Amino acid sequence: MTERTLVLVKPDGVARGLVGEVITRLERKGLRLVAAELRTLSREVAETHYAEHRERPFFGDLVEFITGGPLLALVVEGPRAIEAFRALAGATDPVKATPGTIRGDFALEVQNNIVHGSDSPESAAREVKLFFPDLG
Ligand code: RTP
Ligand code: MG
Question: Where is the Nucleoside diphosphate kinase-like domain (predicted)?
Fold first, then answer.
């Protein structure tokens, strides 16, 4: 069954020139791009996107980080795309992420972990709508 997920190349990934690397990896896997936009998030969109973490001690830093420069928002499609992209991304903490994953290969700090991928069908539906409200 085809599924859609929201992928972000976070501001650290864009600043480090890793956009092509991320897109190459997901296309090589067989996932397909449906939408793409380079944009700098407003505080409001960032706080909505990460609302589940509102009470966490790192929330303020996370919002500063994710609004701190342009990011690349992607909608990606394919069979079990949500799980497939999370597997490509690797564990949240890049030091624990397996080498061969995006985080495992390119990052060292938990906040600056290069990519985001929706974590469930409910999150994907909410996040795709937040970033691309006009997508059919
Ligand atoms: P994401 O939502 O960005 O795809 O990452 P995730 O599911 O793997 O991890 P999640 O628990 O949802 O955390 C969201 C993002 O917050 C930052 N973070 N910082 N300083 C910290 O302890 C900490 N913990 C998480 C990371 O950027 C993480 O991806
Ligand atoms: Mg998450």
Answer: 2-136
Q: ipTM of the assembly?
A: 0.94
Which of 11, 116, 131, 132 is catalytic? The answer is 116
Residue with tokens 């296309």: 27
Q: How far apart are CA 120 and CA 23, in angstroms?
A: 21
Query: What distance in angstroms lies between residue 92's CA and the mean position of ligand 1's atoms?
Result: 6
**pTM of the predicted model as reported, rounded to 2 decimal places:** 0.97
Number of folded domains in the chain?
1
116 is catalytic: yes
**Digit-coded pLDDT (tens) for 3-14:** 999 999 999 999
Q: Which CATH number does the domain housing residue 28 bear?
A: 3.30.70.141
Examine residue 46 and state whether it is found in any structural domain, yes or no: yes
